[in-house]
Specification:
The protein has about 90 residues and is mainly alpha-helical. The protein has a two-stranded antiparallel sheet with strand order 1-2. The longest helix has 24 residues. The radius of gyration is 21 Å and the shape is elongated. The N and C termini lie far apart (about 60 Å).
Amino acid sequence: MTKNCEWCGVDFDANVSYQIYCGSVCRADATKDKNSSKQRDKRIKSRVGKERNCTTCGKPLSIYNDETFCGTCIGDKKGFVKFIKGLI
């Protein structure tokens, strides 16, 4: 039975009717991706209702931002580097 791998899209001959990945590499990669997505969702949910601010400028951070710096501060490379060097 020929199937299409749900991870890489390659056609393969399935050994059993419920096989959805072409091999162990694709199965492992899909599992890692699924687990990292679950962990990210868990981190986002834990931030709901909590106030987080940028370490350099103090602006509020989005619950989706995994960093402790806002995009503006990271974009301002000179100021960001000065701030980081001050921490070291």
